């Protein structure tokens, strides 16, 4: 640019140079459009959650500064909660902490504040969510924490409307609910490991059989019907298991069987997600958006779940509190496998998105039922529940993240429409 200020150039010459540069830019930029598959093309070196927020304002597409909504801290929110255990019928008994006598309420009065964002992550807007979801379908694929997440969504949406049971089978593990005003359907697909598994015959063994290269067809056969699929898996992988690949035993996790190598749960966890992603990428029927909701950690202290461990904290951790080693490793495996799948998805025109909520949920040791998920005299296997989440509670904020991601997806669609009109 120093040339533009040189005394050796006349004003006409300087004007000619500026015009030439401008013409060159306007010629080159359109040539880049075929390579820009999404509005984050030039941000691809960033964390996947660091995407620009795209909105339609007065018919004009605008972008806000990019920020990572998944990095931040919990701050007080005196306006919460937005429903109670008496106003929402969708709360599972084991997560109905107030019903079973939890005395403190501060744990429900927090919201997530992202770092480096011009505005806070908005609290969940049920009207906005249902408008985006109008005429669409959404599936929650996973275990009981996934169901916990879906029930939270139903409770938040109850401020607008309750759904009707639209289940196609009489099975509590495979429920469907429809919001008739909005023609919006949500469904739960139970799958403990994402891959094919058989539960142990407890009279003989406590080992699961996991077929790590075979996705669980109970959900893969159905996802073609859905616009949004949210997959997650975690705590069942801690259980002792025998691993099969190509119908042959290849190892195990804590099986203690002779002549079988203990490959550890991390091996099985990685393989299960790799297989699940492959099933989505290979699906000829699924044309929607898949979200990976990352691992939601437990917070047992003073022992394991079956050794008297409990979770009695009353406040969130500070945002610099380090995750435990196992949580960090499981989370890293998910990010690595998601990264591999995302690269393949781009080639195939599939849409995979990262709902990276592990750090936010790690900071909430105060949000579990503990002993308030059942009557004191009840005979339950998980007496102190530090795995699931109270409703209302921190898991409600997963839907703040989910809505933010849906808005971004809607914005990308608007941007694509605008480009099409300009082309």
From TrEMBL:
Domain Trichome birefringence-like C-terminal: 121-405
GO molecular function, one term: O-acetyltransferase activity
CC annotations in GO: Golgi apparatus; membrane
Subcellular location(s) of the protein: Membrane
Domain of life: Eukaryota
Membrane topology label: Single-pass membrane protein
Keywords: Membrane, Signal-anchor, Transmembrane, Transmembrane helix
Pfam families reported in the protein's UniProt record: PC-Esterase, PMR5N
Record field: transmembrane: 15-36
Start and end residues of each Trichome birefringence-like N-terminal domain: 65-118
Family: Belongs to the PC-esterase family. TBL subfamily.
Matches recorded under PANTHER family: PROTEIN TRICHOME BIREFRINGENCE-LIKE 19, PROTEIN TRICHOME BIREFRINGENCE-LIKE 9-RELATED
Protein name (database record): Trichome birefringence-like N-terminal domain-containing protein
Organism: Thlaspi arvense
């Amino acid at each position: 640019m120093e040339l533009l200020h040189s005394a050796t150039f006349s004003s006409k010459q300087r004007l000619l140079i500026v015009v030439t540069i401008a013409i060159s830019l306007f010629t080159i930029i359109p040539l880049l459009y075929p390579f820009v598959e999404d509005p984050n093309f030039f941000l691809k070196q960033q964390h996947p959650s660091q995407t620009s927020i795209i909105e339609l304002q007065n018919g004009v597409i605008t972008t806000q500064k990019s920020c990572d909504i998944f990095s931040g801290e919990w701050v007080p929110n005196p306006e919460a909660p937005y429903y109670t255990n008496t106003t929402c019928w969708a709360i599972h008994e084991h997560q109905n902490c107030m019903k079973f006598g939890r005395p403190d309420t501060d744990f429900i009065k927090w919201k997530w504040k992202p770092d480096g964002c011009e505005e806070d992550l908005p609290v969940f807007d049920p009207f906005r969510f249902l408008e985006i979801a109008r005429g669409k379908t959404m599936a929650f694929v996973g275990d009981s924490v996934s169901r916990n997440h879906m029930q939270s969504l139903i409770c938040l949406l109850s401020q607008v409307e309750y759904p009707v049971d639209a289940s196609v089978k009489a099975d509590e593990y495979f429920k469907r609910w429809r919001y008739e005003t909005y023609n919006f359907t949500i469904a739960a697909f139970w799958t403990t490991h994402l891959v094919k598994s058989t539960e142990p015959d407890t009279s003989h063994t406590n080992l699961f059989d996991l077929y790590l290269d075979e996705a669980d067809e109970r959900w893969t056969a159905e996802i073609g019907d859905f616009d949004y699929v949210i997959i997650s898996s975690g705590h069942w992988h801690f259980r002792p298991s025998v691993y099969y690949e190509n119908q042959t035993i290849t190892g195990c996790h804590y099986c203690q069987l002779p002549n079988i190598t203990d490959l550890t749960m991390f091996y099985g966890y990685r393989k299960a997600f790799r297989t699940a992603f492959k099933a989505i990428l290979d699906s000829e029927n699924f044309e929607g958006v898949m979200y990976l909701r990352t691992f939601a950690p437990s917070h047992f202290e003073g022992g394991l779940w079956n050794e008297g461990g409990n979770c009695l904290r009353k406040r969130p951790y500070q945002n610099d509190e380090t995750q435990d080693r196992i949580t960090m490793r499981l989370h890293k495996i998910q990010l690595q496998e998601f990264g591999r799948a995302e690269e393949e998805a781009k080639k195939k025109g599939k849409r995979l998105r990262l709902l990276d909520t592990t750090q936010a949920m790690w900071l909430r040791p105060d949000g579990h039922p503990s002993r308030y998920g059942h009557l004191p005299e009840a005979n339950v296997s998980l007496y102190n529940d530090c795995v699931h989440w109270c409703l209302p509670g921190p898991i409600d904020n997963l839907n703040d993240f989910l809505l933010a991601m849906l808005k971004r997806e809607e914005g990308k669609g608007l941007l694509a429409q605008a480009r099409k009109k300009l082309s």
